[in-house]
Amino acid sequence: MTQRMTNRFAKLALENRPAFVTYFMGGDPDYETSLEIMKGLPAAGADVIELGMPFSDPMADGPSIQAAGLRALQGGHNLPRTFDMVRTFRETDDETPIVVMGYYNPIYQFGPEKFLATAKESGVDGMIIVDLPPEMDDELCIPALERDLNFIRLATPTTDEKRLPKVLTNTSGFVYYVSINGITGAAAPDPEAVAASVRHIKNKTDLPICVGFGVRNAEQAASIGMAADGVVVGSAIVSALADSLDDGNATSKTVSAPLELVSRIAEGVRGART
Amino acid sequence: MSVQTPNSFKTGPDEQGLFGIFGGRFVAETLMPNILELDAAYADAKKDPEFLSELESLNKHYTGRPSPLYFAERLTNHLGGAKVYFKRDELNHTGSHKINNCLGQILLARRMGKTRIIAETGAGQHGVAAATVAARFGYPCIVYMGAKDVHRQSPNVFRMKLLGAEITGVTAGAGTLKDAMNEALRDWVTNVEDTYYLIGTAAGPHPYPELVRDFQSVIGKEARQQIQEMEGRLPDMLVASVGGGSNAIGLFHPFLDDTDVQIVGVEAGGKGLDGDEHCASLTAGRPGVLHGNRTYLLQDSEGQIEEGASISAGLDYPGIGPEHSWLKETNRVEYVPIMDTEALEAFQLLCRLEGIIPALEPSHALAEVIKRAPEMNKDQIIVMNLCGRGDKDVHTVAEALGLEL
Lengths: 274, 405
Known about the structure:
The complex is a heterodimer.
Chain A: H1 3-15, E1 19-25, H2 31-44, E2 48-52, H3 63-74, H4 79-90, E3 98-102, H5 104-110, H6 112-122, E4 126-129, H7 141-146, E5 150-151, E6 154-155, H8 164-168, E7 175-178, H9 191-202, E8 209-212, H10 218-225, E9 230-233, H11 235-244, H12 256-270
Parallel strand pairs in A: 1-2, 1-9, 2-3, 3-4, 4-5, 6-7, 7-8, 8-9
Helix pairs in contact in A: 2-4, 2-12, 4-6, 10-12, 11-12
Chain B: E1 18-19, E2 22-26, H1 32-45, H2 49-63, E3 69-71, H3 73-79, E4 83-87, H4 98-111, E5 116-121, H5 125-137, E6 141-146, H6 147-152, H7 154-162, E7 166-170, H8 177-190, E8 195-197, H9 208-216, H10 218-231, E9 237-241, H11 246-252, E10 262-270, H12 281-284, E11 286-290, E12 292-297, H13 322-329, E13 334-339, H14 340-354, H15 360-372, E14 381-385, H16 394-400
Parallel strand pairs in B: 4-14, 5-6, 5-8, 6-7, 9-10, 9-14, 10-13
Antiparallel strand pairs in B: 1-2, 2-12, 3-4, 11-12
Helix pairs in contact in B: 2-4, 4-5, 4-9, 5-7, 9-11, 10-11, 14-15
């Protein structure tokens, strides 16, 4: 685990509260606006930042994240700008872990080695690459671990007894438990089923378990946060941003609307175990 | 880039689903258990004599196989060179080679106990074939189709509805085949427990490229036997069109180790490779990762996928089956582009010379045959896969010729 990630989860364990992991799409709707949002996330209550890297064909994402990615791409967002965001963020915050999240092809074209070197240098802590299952670990996962970057894997309700050890091997940072079979932003998860799954995975690993997909408000976040080590919210934040736009362009509310939602959900997360 | 020539071109894919560096299993974790289950089910089925004989019986009595190998005498005389034979998969039930794959996969779906079929389609030929087998075996079927294609292929949309399928128009992205495939994958991720994803081409995560190829290889196996019966030898050249590449790999695969047989795959050159209106992934793209496999893709310099464009909706896909990528890099198969205008001319020529209205997809292959046959000797033989009939394309052709129906 990177030092920032280790420190963050250690601190949260001392406070006996789950981590609030926030996803947003880098470059949506433009570079400057999304950088402002990123800078505001820790103060709004984000403990770990997932920075979305846009891809034209996001097969595991629902409509709101698809649309966010297209807006970012139309604004000219790309991997170099993603790393610029991280560098600028790190000028004022060297503690909040940053996990970049996206699909493999843009990385493959950029060059996996160059991607990892630039990620490390700019201050990235880990990555979630949706279309790289353990069977494809040689592509990016193993080289990432060699550079002390976290490779965070998704476990899902379809990850059975036989599959789980394979998923946990080479996973680092935390385990991202996908609470439903489906795409991002879909149906709400059942807290009890999630809690049972989290306990089950915890028997097999010492890594923190963060739960996401379908968590949209403070109440859901609180109920998920009772059992999980972290709660991930993405589509709801992206939708709050989208609702503030005027014809695809940023307005005076585009920075504040997603951050206000983050603040509200953060209260739910912080109250999960009280 | 070229790689060392292997001892055999027919041993792939390996256990990881790779043909050289191409193929693989680049999918979300939610789908991995399903992909592995399918892999095991197929490995089991292909060794099961009952499965194979049921498929053979359906091919014979339901589809009408073997499809004829036809000597196109007037076309041959017109071109004045090599003898041209057509493998007539356009005479199959449903009008194209797509049924070969769908029958194989529906038997697999039943074997795996799945109760719901999903499919993607571009031109609608695979959608029709999928809806057909779903009706024949009594499964509900949802077909994802780009909204743009729903509009330009309306006769096939109605055919699918008659067959009981539910059509979901996809407006995300550009509303064409790649977006339909994204949407089908999203459905599958959401409904993994009961749903079988019936992929229409020899692409996607392993084992799809392998099993689609195997089900389509009936084309090449028959052609190999038929040409030996008719000419007493193997052909000098095979020609087939490639979109995703299933009809081509079906014809090519049984001949891959016959190194005297020259093999040519024909891509959609659209309005020309200089602009962005074409679908020539192999001649104008480069390797990347999309829809579960590594293969040649149309993409920008940053790895964002670009739209394909072709007069033929069936070739309108920015990727290509991974085995074709490997056959290109090993130089076993030559891939060339044919422009929309050349395909249109070939389409019309075949109508008048042979009384066959071909689909626009094999019209691309035919345009390449028209270029090559006159350069060859009269005792040489070309076998071309006439993989679909053109009824579905008459509106497109009329529009391209400036006619109103």
